[in-house]
Write a structure and sequence with these properties.
cytoplasm, DTB_synth_BioD, magnesium, Rossmann fold, single chain, magnesium ion binding, two-stranded parallel sheet
Length: 227
């Protein structure tokens, strides 16, 4: 069985998918067999025949070069760019924990290192009407540690520390932070990262700048995060 890690973010559009793609690419380029998984994916376009295209999964597959089929990557795909609980209310096919866990187990059986990406921020509800399922429930059931992805820019101190405190109170283990949209020698970005490290005690695992195609982290350190 493969090992896993959960990638969460301080909110929507901080670059979880971009960072996840780079993580998986790094592992593949070092001769291992990585896989990708996401419980629910919203905001997807349709093929001409009406079939939904799992955009995040397809992007990760293309940027990383993995052979995993997109059908394995995500059991619940929605068109509306809303939280999965609302998208499923409008479109049907609500998320069931048993289905998510069964699909994740199948991926673990085929791949060495599975990177599981969350939807939105850590409090994003995945299902609400038929059952109460949040990202924290999925992380708990999968028994995963987490990587926290944040934007390096203005406002990140507040969002990082609030996310950290919430996850700490839920006894969730965060292995470290990756800062996206990082600009080298930008005094605010450097200070934001320093303050986030000080206020959370978490290490910075990597800094990702716009257009980066590689993740600047030692491969041994990266795979040590998985369990």
């Amino acid at each position: 069985m493969g090992k896993g890690i959960f990638v969460t973010g301080t909110g929507t559009d901080v670059g979880k998918t971009y960072v996840t793609g780079l993580i998986i690419k790094k592992i593949k380029e070092n001769g291992m067999t990585p896989g990708y998984f996401k419980a629910a994916m919203s905001g997807n376009e349709r093929e001409e025949d009406g079939t939904l295209i799992p955009g995040d999964a397809l992007w990760v597959k293309n940027v990383s070069g993995i052979s995993q089929s997109v059908e394995e990557m995500c059991p619940y795909i929605y068109e509306h760019a809303y939280s999965p609980h609302l998208a499923s209310r409008l479109e049907g096919n609500h998320v069931e924990m048993a289905v998510v866990l069964d699909n994740y187990r199948k991926v673990k059986e085929k791949y060495d290192y599975i990177t599981v990406e969350g939807s939105g921020g850590i409090l994003c509800p995945i299902c609400f009407d038929e059952a109460r399922i949040g990202l924290t429930d999925i992380i708990d059931e999968m028994e995963l540690d987490c990587i926290l992805v944040a934007d390096a820019g203005l406002g990140t101190i507040n969002s990082v520390v609030l996310t950290y405190e919430y996850m700490k109170n839920r006894n969730m283990n965060i292995k470290g932070m990756i800062f996206n949209h990082y600009i080298a020698d930008n005094i605010m970005h450097e200070d934001n990262i320093r303050m986030c490290e000080y206020m959370t005690g978490l290490p910075t695992l990597a800094k990702v700048s716009m257009g980066d195609v590689d993740l600047n982290i030692d491969i041994a350190e990266l795979i040590s995060l998985y369990r």
